[in-house]
Amino acid sequence: MSYLIIPSGDEACSVRQQMTDYWAQFSEPTLENMMLNEDARQLAEQEETEILDSVPQVGGMRVLELGAGIGRFTRKLAERAKHVTAVDFLETYIEKNRQSNEHLGNVEFVCMDVTQLKQDNGQYDMIFSNWLLMYLGDDEIDKLVSSMLRWLKPNGYLFIRESCIKQSGNKKRQTNPTFYRSPAHYCSLLQGPSMKSAEADYRFTLRYAASVDVFIKYSGNPYQLLYLLRKTPTSDYFSSFQNFLDKHQYCLNGIKRYEAVYGDSFVSCGGKPVTERLCDRLDLQAHSRVLDVGTGPGGSAIHMASRYGCHVTGIDLSANMVTVALQRQASLPPAVRERLRFEISDITEREYRDASYDVIYSRETLLHVEDKAAVLAKFWRWLKPGGKLLITDYCQGEGQLRNEFLEYKSARAYRLLTLQEYGGVVEAAGFTDVQVHDQKDDFLNVLHQELNTFRARRQQFIEEFSESEFRDTVVGWEQKIARATDGSQVWGLIAAQKPSEE
């Protein structure tokens, strides 16, 4: 576990004192104190296995472990890595760690406030931190992230685990000054600072963030988040596009506006009714494992887990979308909650084991992806033999396209194919029984229904948002109807299957 990282300045001194006093209550080096949980021994082994399975292979690496505590992870990291530098600010904890792990011979133990830590540039292949940033202010995190960028080699990894939204442990405490941030807030903090060097300008790029499953099963808490980032050149497309989505189209207010039209937890055409019809095509069973690509605020994933009892992994590039999905997950019955896993990640960068899923389902998502062939090749690998693929997506019409449509496509950063081109890419990836449908009539019917329902809720919407946002939404839907009517914007349905093994 990790602890206090101390701010600077007068205000920082106050935070420092609060955190110092807080951890003085738990300075005895026990597992229960370190995890702030009376049930620590029941949780520890499963949690440690899940976390260590989430980090890159550390063989041959030099690892910096921040907030190493009594050594829950120090030993297991040191058994695999070339060298581990274990840092913690509590003397009792780091001494316990030393007693337990000094015999390994490749661990350096440092009792130090992490904000005061000095390390050589480019010294480490990975930095590992478990429950640390929640004890730092935003300014302190900014400085620490800048330092970690310097300490890591190019392409080095940063692994972070934090409690988001609320506390995880059940240990009684008199006060709790911990910062429980949103998952999206951490994404912003971790990817904000940059580092200039002679070779390139670097920053951290998120590879994925996901809940710790053990805590969902044990306490119904999906807010224990793992983050894996990598030190990459600042030109990296992922972080800039994620930033575009979360600050513009999918800002939190924008998501709420979409939900005002599509329904709670939905941001795809037709909302829940269309989702129900599409899912009925998939022959979902309780044993089915589904990958929902572009899960948004989780509506389709929640529906599949609730109605069919299947296990669903929902992935989305937007940190705001997944933050909303986690909030919805937290309110579900335990049996449904445990069948869901939401991730913040770029599908073009994410990897899963081959033959992991029975179904891959994606709604209006690949329109953001330039190289659809590469993503569809991944889908083919990730599906089990006989697995099903179902995609709905916006496509562009054939022939000359109006300037209004081209401007719309550019403003949204859409990368659109014609429907026939889309089907060809799916077939080229190795899928069989490829079915491609132009959903024009359904598209127009749904758009008119959505617009009529939205207009009927005018006063309620204005009270929550504004008159101008109401007008903007109406105009947006009217323009979409015009594009669908003239054929420039096509709503396509693509269904296919991975061949069964003979």
UniProtKB/TrEMBL annotation:
Which Pfam family, any one of them, does this sequence belong to? Methyltransf_25
Q: What species was this sequence derived from?
A: Amphibalanus amphitrite
- Reading the lineage from the top rank, the first entry is Eukaryota
What is the enzyme's main class? transferase
Q: Kindly state which reaction or reactions the protein catalyses.
A: phosphoethanolamine + S-adenosyl-L-methionine = N-methylethanolamine phosphate + S-adenosyl-L-homocysteine + H(+); N-methylethanolamine phosphate + S-adenosyl-L-methionine = N,N-dimethylethanolamine phosphate + S-adenosyl-L-homocysteine + H(+); N,N-dimethylethanolamine phosphate + S-adenosyl-L-methionine = phosphocholine + S-adenosyl-L-homocysteine + H(+)
Listed GO MF terms: phosphoethanolamine N-methyltransferase activity
- CDD domains xrefs: AdoMet_MTases
- Under Enzyme Commission nomenclature, its number is 2.1.1.103
Q: Which InterPro entries does this one have?
A: Methyltranfer_dom, Methyltransf_25, SAM-dependent_MTases_sf
Q: Which Gene3D superfamilies match?
A: Vaccinia Virus protein VP39 (3.40.50.150)
Q: What name does this protein carry?
A: phosphoethanolamine N-methyltransferase
Cite the Methyltransferase domain residue spans from the record. Answer: 63-156, 286-411
Q: What processes in GO biological process is this protein linked to?
A: methylation
Recite the UniProt keywords alphabetically: Methyltransferase, Transferase
PANTHER family xref list: PHOSPHOETHANOLAMINE METHYLTRANSFERASE, PHOSPHOETHANOLAMINE METHYLTRANSFERASE ISOFORM X1
Q: Give the pathway.
A: Phospholipid metabolism; phosphatidylcholine biosynthesis; Lipid metabolism
